[in-house]
Structure formats: C-alpha cells, structure tokens
Amino acid sequence: MDSYIISEDLQLHQTEHSHDEEGNKMFGFIVFLLSESVIFLSFFAGYIVYKTTTPNWLPPGVEGLEVVAPAINTAVLVASSFVIYFAERALQRHNLWGFRLYLLATMAMGSYFLFGQAVEWNSLEFSLTSGAFGGMFYLLTGFHGLHVLTGILLQLIIFVRSFIPGNYDSGHFGVNATSLFWHFVDVIWIILFVLLYVWQ
C-alpha cells in the first residue's frame, strides 16, 4: 500500500514538473519576444526622430511609396495569423492532416509576403544609401523580412515533426511558440505599414 502511494506521488510530481517545464519554456520564449520588441521599438523611435527632424526626408526624385501592393501584402500576412490559429486548433483536436494543411497555407502566405516585398524592393527608385529615409526603410523592412523568413522555417520544422508518430502527444510547446512568434511578426508589420506607408 505504501509503495503504491509513493508511486502515485512520484507520478503526480513528474506530471507537475512536466507542466512547469513547458510553462517555463513558454515564459522564456515570451521574454525573448519582449527583447525583440525592444529592438523594433528602438528602430521605430529612430525612424520617427529622423522623419520629423531631417530636412528633405525623401530622396531626390521620390515623392512617396506606392501603397496598394504593400496593402495587399499586409492583408495576406494578417490573414495568415488566423490560418496558423486554425492550425493550432486542429492539432488540439488531434486532426493532424488539418494541422498540416493550415500550416502549409500559412507558409504559402508568408512566402507570398516575402515575394511581394522582393518585387517592391526591385522596383524602388532609391537604395540603402539614399539618405536617412533609404537607410531606415531597408533596415526596417529587411529586419522584419528576416523575421518572416525565420517564422516560415520554424513552421517547416513543426510541419516535418508532425510526421513523427506520437511527437505531439506529450505537448505542443513548439507549435504554440511558433504561432506566437508569427502573431508577433504580424503585429510588428502592422506598425511598420502605418509608419512607412500610411504616414507619408
């Protein structure tokens, strides 16, 4: 009887420890995202200061940025946040094929965003060295694009891992963290879109 109670206590302790470990991982990941937020916020602050204090803010011959294509890109990226949420929900219901399909759709939407950004870069009439505006524009959009690419690679990893039998039976930390990262990337882009394209 005593050995049964001890065994039961050990199992309970292991379960609690496992739960705490996943919670600690997510807390650490949130701290990481907060540190990324500080970097982006410093870039936003720098952009605002330069824009409001630099004479002849736009490079010679540039009257402003085209808005329609970036707005479509923005809509696609924001919509992808809902799609990856559906992927999470599908996994919670143990619907692996639904999870994979939603994840593939999210990756496709993220790739479309990057492709759209590359097309925009190629059509711009200014470069990284075109004054403060050029430097800030390419820094902000490039750094964000790097985060989008990272998010797509993370999604690819959890997609591949979904084919390992029983891989997600014990927890979904990797999926939840990747989804949170993707939502973070989307929120950052909304702020960037307002700063770069709306506030001209």
UniProtKB/TrEMBL annotation:
<dbReference type="GO" id="GO:0005886">
    <property type="term" value="C:plasma membrane"/>
</dbReference>
<dbReference type="InterPro" id="IPR013833">
    <property type="entry name" value="Cyt_c_oxidase_su3_a-hlx"/>
</dbReference>
<keyword id="KW-1003">Cell membrane</keyword>
<feature type="transmembrane region" description="Helical">
    <location>
        <begin position="27"/>
        <end position="48"/>
    </location>
</feature>
<comment type="similarity">
    <text>Belongs to the cytochrome c oxidase subunit 3 family.</text>
</comment>
<keyword id="KW-1133">Transmembrane helix</keyword>
<dbReference type="GO" id="GO:0019646">
    <property type="term" value="P:aerobic electron transport chain"/>
</dbReference>
<dbReference type="GO" id="GO:0004129">
    <property type="term" value="F:cytochrome-c oxidase activity"/>
</dbReference>
<dbReference type="Pfam" id="PF00510">
    <property type="entry name" value="COX3"/>
</dbReference>
<keyword id="KW-0812">Transmembrane</keyword>
<feature type="transmembrane region" description="Helical">
    <location>
        <begin position="68"/>
        <end position="87"/>
    </location>
</feature>
<dbReference type="InterPro" id="IPR035973">
    <property type="entry name" value="Cyt_c_oxidase_su3-like_sf"/>
</dbReference>
<keyword id="KW-0472">Membrane</keyword>
<protein>
    <recommendedName>
        <fullName>Oxidase aa(3) subunit 3</fullName>
    </recommendedName>
</protein>
<feature type="transmembrane region" description="Helical">
    <location>
        <begin position="99"/>
        <end position="115"/>
    </location>
</feature>
<feature type="domain" description="Heme-copper oxidase subunit III family profile">
    <location>
        <begin position="1"/>
        <end position="200"/>
    </location>
</feature>
<dbReference type="InterPro" id="IPR024791">
    <property type="entry name" value="Cyt_c/ubiquinol_Oxase_su3"/>
</dbReference>
<feature type="transmembrane region" description="Helical">
    <location>
        <begin position="180"/>
        <end position="199"/>
    </location>
</feature>
<dbReference type="InterPro" id="IPR000298">
    <property type="entry name" value="Cyt_c_oxidase-like_su3"/>
</dbReference>
<feature type="transmembrane region" description="Helical">
    <location>
        <begin position="135"/>
        <end position="160"/>
    </location>
</feature>
